[in-house]
Amino acid sequence: MRSRRSILAVPASNPRFLEKAQTLPADEVFLDLEDSVAPLAKEEARGNAVTALREGDWSGKTVAVRVNDLTTQWTYRDVIEVVEGAGDRLDCLIMPKVQDPTEVVWLDTLLTQIEKTMGYEVGRIGIEAQIENARGLVNVDAIAGSSPRLEALVFGPADFMASINMRTLVVGEQPPGYTEGDAYHYILMRLLMAARSHDLQVIDGPYLQIKDVEGYRRVAARAAALGFDGKWVLHPLQVDAANEVFSPSQEDYDHAELILEAYEHYTTVERRGAVMLGDEMIDEASRKMALVVAAKGRAAGL
Ligand code: GLV
Ligand code: MG
């Protein structure tokens, strides 16, 4: 599985940002054709995206393009121009505002036709689906199971908050007046369950107060604690924060490796199922929990 702790959004209408993005340590970069690109700049942005994919140095990163959603007139040309022009350089397409599994099936079918026409390996290009409105969330289980190309579900908090009429203007923060609990808990858990039940990754969306790195960390830590794999970043300052928040601490990683070693020893050499590690009892379920932390730590190079 690809590492997706930090996913950097870059408007494809801005060649300077497209250059800069290649130098940042984000796990994934996506070239945006959707909401960060003005309607009059959409066509030029497609060309920029193809050029950046063909000529840029994206080594070490997952590279994706976000197309426009299916209620617009742009989606089919976005997909055809980008994938015909640079499909061999592209890891994933991001489909925004997905409301229904048929939208992902449409993209999967179109991708297959383009791959066949161009002589690319069929099925290599993945899909990430953004869940950004009430209908998308209600249909999220079916969406999560809609295509073998799906790699991740992505929460789109800005559009989502607008779609449900949440009374706030600050993306990711609690709505003023809501003092009990976390207004996002249900949505995040719903996405997490749908994603995990189909072995997909699950990603938190943007935090728009880009200068407030502490605010970013706080909101990212909330998603990381639940089990999310990563979060979008909109600014270089947020990249390191995301990579750190979505990697286990060195202490937790070391502890996880210790559990795995101890468990392996006791179950194979001593043939015992539940054993003590210091004051802690560990069993098969502990091993599974430790595996999750260890895998993330190894991927982060700890
Ligand atoms: C991202 O696309 C969002 O709407 O938050
Ligand atoms: Mg959105």
CATH topology description of the largest domain: TIM Barrel
Radius of gyration from CA coordinates: 20 Å
Q: What small molecules does this complex bind? A: glyoxylic acid, magnesium ion
The H-level CATH homologous superfamily of the largest domain, spelled out, is Phosphoenolpyruvate-binding domains
State the CATH class of the largest domain: Alpha Beta
List low-pLDDT spans. none
CATH architecture of the largest domain: Alpha-Beta Barrel
Class based on secondary structure composition and strand pairing: alpha/beta
Q: What is the H/E order?
A: EHEHEHEHEHHEHHEHEHHEEH
Number of domains: 2
Strands of the widest sheet, in order across it, are 1-2-3-4-5-6-7-8
Task: Tell me about this structure.
- The strands form 2 sheets. The chain has an 8-stranded parallel β-barrel, surrounded by 6 helices.
- Helices cover 46% and strands 15% of the residues.
- Helix 4 links the parallel strand 4 and strand 5.
- 41% of the residues are buried.
- The chain has 2 domains: 6-246, Phosphoenolpyruvate-binding domains (TIM Barrel, Alpha-Beta Barrel); 250-300, no CATH class.
- The protein contains 12 helices and 10 strands.
- The model has no long low-confidence stretch (mean pLDDT 96).
- Residues 96, 130, 132, 156-159, 205-206 line the site of glyoxylic acid (GLV).
- Mg(2+) binds at residues 132, 159.
- Residues 5-236 form the HpcH/HpaI aldolase/citrate lyase domain.
- Keywords: Lyase, Magnesium, Metal-binding.
- GO terms for molecular function: lyase activity; magnesium ion binding.
